[in-house]
């Protein structure tokens, strides 16, 4: 009988708390985070326009990540937190 | 030295053969059989690198994962590394954990990058890391197992599993192992690690997120300019043309001697390639790489393939015979991932 060691990282639980989803987008300020890939800004703007036209959102504002491979940087996270009620982030490719 | 105890979960098998199948069944391998990571083998690996099991080699912020020496050693055993390879594996893991390498992109992307490892300094010769014939393999244990260990760490510790957090559309064979050494013994130029700030007697590993090697032929010219003109012509449309990634250029024996014989330095090679790999906006638009209609001024407007000459890493390696060399496009773009060089600490 031999023993072998598990090469993987054993599952660790990280409690993640999500902000409750808004019941309605009416009057809400929407942040859009685009990932710098070609057309990602156009795709997100179309989504933002639909949220305004069909769901009554108050308006949209777009932020741009430094590049598509990294999380949004802290400055824009803080700005979004201060000025928006909901955010849409997505990948354009 | 007194070591802390190994804390990884232990599984039992009746013998090595059954343990190999157990590793397959658990999804721990890259598709090839592994050496079963018994506690004794893992301890020998850690002793060779003089690391405690709980030492954190790097922290991959994008994945919220700590890569400990114990996990690295387990995967290095599985890859078939000899214990003395472990310091090189550790330096490479430090490299891919560096924010400049930026793990999440090259570790996940559909573009399917591998980790190209370039080993420099005394350790390359001591461990017999191949810098010559059949540079990219097969045939050398150090080349094939060091890179494999890094990839198994990415799979088993960092979560880069094909189909989940490794979404390579095509991938390439270098994702099994992609390790070379520079031929410092015969190279007329300063080695890569010295150009990147280390002393010649130090050992170092450079990690670069990379596509596969692109071999080019020049069996005609006996001048530096002739060979590099051919290379530039092959390079000009390659890799992520619009993304401006870094490139590695690997010059093998015959080309190396011809280019150096004309008195060209690595800096001159980089400058020449930078100047001769630029594409006109008109060509990029006609070939549907750049958006928009071709404007009259686009014929004369040039876009460099790389951001600067320094983004071309020049390495002397490969067999002595044969008028071939290669270039290797980096993954994505320089702003998303950069080559990183780390000292091999022994």
Précis, in short:
Chain A is an alpha/beta fold and 93 residues long. Chain A is built from two helices and four strands, in the order ββαβαβ. Chain B is built from twelve helices and 13 strands.
Structural commentary:
Chain A contains two helices and four strands, in the order ββαβαβ. With 93 residues, chain A is an alpha/beta fold. A three-stranded parallel sheet of chain A has the order 3-2-4, sandwiched between helices. Chain B has twelve helices and 13 strands. The two termini of chain B are 15 Å apart. The model of chain B has no long low-confidence stretch (mean pLDDT 96).
Residue windows where pLDDT falls under 50 for at least 5 positions of chain B: none
Number of beta-strand segments of chain A: 4
Give the strand line-up of the largest sheet of chain B: 5-4-6-13
**Rough outline of chain B:** globular
| Coarse structural class of chain B | alpha+beta
The major sheet of chain A is characterized as: 3 strands, parallel
* Helix-residue proportion of chain B: 25-40%
List the helices and strands and how they pair.
The complex is a heterodimer of chains A (93) and B (346).
Chain A: E1 2-5, E2 29-34, H1 40-55, E3 59-64, H2 74-83, E4 86-89
Parallel strand pairs in A: 2-3, 2-4
Chain B: E1 10-13, H1 16-25, H2 39-49, E2 56-60, E3 65-68, H3 69-79, H4 86-96, H5 104-108, E4 114-120, H6 122-126, H7 141-156, E5 179-181, H8 192-195, E6 204-210, E7 214-217, H9 224-235, E8 247-251, H10 253-261, H11 266-276, E9 279-280, H12 281-286, E10 302-303, E11 312-316, E12 324-329, E13 340-343
Helix pairs in contact in B: 2-3, 3-4, 3-7, 4-7, 9-10, 9-11
Keywords:
A: 93 residues; alpha/beta; B: 346 residues; 12 helices; 32% helix; globular
């Amino acid at each position: 009988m031999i023993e072998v060691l598990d090469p993987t990282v054993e599952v660790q639980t990280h409690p993640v708390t999500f902000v409750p989803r808004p019941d309605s987008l009416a009057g809400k300020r929407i942040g859009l985070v685009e990932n710098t890939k070609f057309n990602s800004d156009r795709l997100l703007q179309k989504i933002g326009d639909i949220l305004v036209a069909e769901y009554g959102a108050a308006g949209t504002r777009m932020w741009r990540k430094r590049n598509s491979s990294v999380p949004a940087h802290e400055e824009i996270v803080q700005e979004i937190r201060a000025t928006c009620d909901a955010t849409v982030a997505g990948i354009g490719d | 030295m007194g070591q802390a105890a190994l804390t990884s979960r232990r599984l039992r098998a009746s013998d090595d053969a059954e343990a190999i199948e157990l590793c397959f069944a658990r999804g721990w391998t890259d598709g090839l059989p592994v050496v079963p990571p018994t506690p004794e083998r893992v301890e020998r690996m850690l002793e060779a690198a003089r690391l405690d099991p709980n030492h954190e080699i790097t922290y991959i912020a994008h994945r919220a994962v700590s890569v400990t020496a114990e996990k690295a050693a387990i995967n290095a055993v599985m890859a078939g590394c000899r214990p003395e390879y472990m310091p090189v594996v550790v330096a490479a893991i430090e490299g891919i954990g560096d924010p400049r390498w930026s793990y999440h992109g090259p570790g996940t992307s559909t573009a399917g990058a591998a980790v190209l490892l370039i080993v420099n300094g005394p350790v390359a010769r001591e461990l017999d890391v191949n810098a010559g014939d059949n540079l990219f393999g097969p045939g050398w244990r150090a080349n094939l197992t060091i890179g494999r260990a890094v990839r198994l760490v990415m799979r088993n510790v960092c979560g880069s599993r094909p189909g989940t957090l490794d979404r390579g559309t095509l991938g390439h064979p270098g994702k099994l192992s992609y390790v070379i050494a520079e031929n410092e013994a015969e190279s007329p130029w300063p080695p890569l690690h010295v150009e990147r700030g280390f002393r010649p007697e130090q050992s170092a590993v450079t990690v670069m997120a990379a596509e596969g090697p692109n071999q080019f032929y020049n069996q005609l010219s006996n001048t530096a300019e002739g060979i590099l003109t051919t290379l530039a012509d092959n390079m000009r449309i390659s890799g992520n043309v619009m993304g401006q990634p870094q490139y590695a250029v690997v010059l093998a024996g015959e080309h190396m001697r011809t280019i150096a014989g004309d008195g060209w330095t690595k800096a001159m090679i980089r400058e020449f390639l930078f100047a001769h790999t630029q594409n006109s906006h008109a060509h990029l638009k006609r070939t549907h790489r750049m958006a928009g209609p071709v404007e009259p001024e686009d014929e004369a407007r040039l876009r460099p393939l790389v951001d600067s000459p320094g983004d071309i890493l020049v390495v002397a390696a490969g067999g002595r015979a044969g008028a071939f060399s290669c270039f290797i496009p980096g993954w994505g773009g320089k702003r998303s991932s950069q080559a990183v060089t780390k000292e091999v600490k022994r």
